[in-house]
Write a structure and sequence with these properties.
Alpha-Beta Plaits, Glutaredoxin, eight-stranded mixed β-sheet, 28% helix, FAD-bd, flavoprotein, FAD/NAD-bd_sf, FAD
């Protein structure tokens, strides 16, 4: 029976990102993917937001994605566009890059770090006991791991077999989407004549991405090119010479979230933990960030740096983040409707988005830069993402994100050494001295005073910020790294 400390079911972006994080921590991890290779059929994600690009930058691999995608500084909230160029981040833009390209890059990173990806391995069942989890595939192969993470999508077998509830809301709208060949050029972009529909062309692709809302939500048959042609004619009066499609798939606005992200030795991440209408492109981004939150924690538990109770913070931190994503996608879905009443509401929202504060708040939310974990009272930076500061250190100038490439915690001191002796945590946390900045500019908050020092977790969030006396730092270090 093959044994690995961590088994991941599902080799999409979430599962691959998690595997890469665990491999970086020195954990023997195996990904079990039911597809026989990385080929993807059907509608998948097509881009990354600012925060996802930041976490990839934190691992030193952002350029791999940027070199293959297309940068755009316009984000949108239900088709109401906003300029992201004034966001306080080095990645003040989104990246258009189809999911199969994203997976290829992540898979290469996983294998570089020693992770194993097993294609053609469809899981049929699992059972867990006090020491681990045994997974069975459809061909009868059994796998053993100390922990199992379900990254197997919205219809997650792992979630269902674990008995974790998946409450939420049923579908109210249904859409067809395809990569299709058109003989007549369509009106590119998003439209609301008749019903919502859209036409896009992605860089490096020969086909057009075509999407059209169906008249009914009850059709569950396998979608066809004829169905898409009929939906387009219903919306536009023409099918733009639709000849063929590489694939046609159907999706809807079913909105659900796992009641808990952990059941003893089984955890959930990505679409296995939360599903929603794909408006705003937040699904892949939320899943990758789930993986980055979980990866270092699970790595420390497996490596016996931390107790298993550290895994409870994964649900406590990420469940509210996804709940907010579900909330804003339901709002956007309602705003995405057609008719004079919805048009009046859209006009009102467009006016609000032209104002500075609403624009900043919506832009930061849609780009993933306003996430705030509740670590209690303290410095305004506590629980927020650390900005990628330009640091002047004894070893020369560097960017702060380079300090996170190996997924270790880091204490950065500004101006002078701390009173606290940090040698007890030296195996898990690095210490860097830098010249002090005067203030930091943060999304929504604006400028905040720079603390004397910060403790940054491997996922880039500030776990402690204070003065050079380091009051409370030892408690924070023990909480996260002991």
């Amino acid at each position: 029976m093959p044994e690995h400390p961590v088994l991941i079911v599902g080799g999409g972006p979430t599962g691959l990102m998690l595997a890469g994080e665990l491999a970086l921590a020195g954990v023997d991890v195996a990904v079990l993917e039911r597809r026989v290779d990385r080929a993807l059929v059907g509608s998948r994600a097509a881009g990354m937001n600012s925060r996802t690009l930041e976490v990839l930058d934190q691992r030193g691999i952002a350029d791999r994605f940027l070199s293959q995608g297309e940068i755009g500084q316009n984000g949108h909230y239900s088709g109401l566009f906003f300029d992201a160029s004034d966001l306080p981040t080095r990645h003040n833009y989104s990246l258009t890059l189809l999911q199969y390209r994203i997976e290829k890059i992540l898979a290469q990173w996983v294998t570089e770090n020693g992770g194993a990806i097993h294609y053609g391995c469809e899981v049929s069942d699992f059972n867990q006991d006090t020491t681990g989890v045994t997974v069975t595939s459809v061909d009868g192969t059994r796998w053993r791991g100390a922990y199992l993470v379900g990254c197997d999508g919205g219809r997650s077998l792992i979630r269902k077999a674990s008995g974790i509830a998946f409450p939420g809301w049923a579908a109210s709208t249904s859409c067809l989407v395809a990569d299709a060949e058109l003989t007549t050029e369509p009106p590119w972009g998003m439209h609301r004549e008749g019903r919502f529909h859209a036409f896009f062309r992605f860089p490096g692709e020969d086909t057009a991405r075509v999407m059209a809302t169906e008249a009914h939500v009850t059709n569950t048959a396998e979608p066809t090119v004829a169905d898409l042609r009929a939906a387009l004619i219903d919306c536009r009066g023409t099918d733009y010479g639709l000849r063929d499609a590489a694939w046609v798939s159907r999706f809807n606005d079913t909105t659900r979230q796992a009641a808990c992200y952990r059941d003893r030795r089984v955890l959930l991440a990505g679409d296995a933990a939360h599903v929603h209408f794909p408006i705003g492109g937040q699904g892949l981004n939320t899943g990758i960030q789930d993986a980055v939150n979980l990866g270092w924690k699970l790595g420390q538990v497996v490596n016996r740096t931390s107790s298993a109770t550290l895994l409870d913070t994964y649900h406590a931190e990420r469940h509210p983040v996804a709940a907010r994503v579900l909330h804003n996608t339901m709002a956007q879905t309602a705003l995405n409707g057609v008719g004079e009443r919805t048009a009046a509401l859209r006009d009102t929202m467009a006016e609000l988005l032209s104002m500075r504060e609403p624009h900043e708040r919506i832009a930061a939310m849609m780009c993933g830069l306003d996430i705030h974990y509740d670590f209690g009272a303290g410095h305004p930076m506590l629980g927020l993402r650390m900005p990628d500061l330009a640091l002047d250190t004894a070893d020369g100038p560097t960017r702060l994100f380079t300090l996170l490439h190996n997924a270790r915690g880091v204490v950065v001191t500004f101006g002078r050494h701390l009173a606290q002796d940090l040698s007890r945590w030296a195996q898990r946390v690095s210490v860097v001295d830098a010249h002090p900045p005067s203030a930091w500019r943060l999304p929504v908050l604006g400028e905040v005073p720079a603390p004397g020092a910060v403790l940054i977790r491997p996922d880039g969030y500030v776990a402690w910020a204070g003065d050079h006396g380091a009051g409370g730092l030892a408690v924070a270090l023990d909480e996260w790294f002991a």
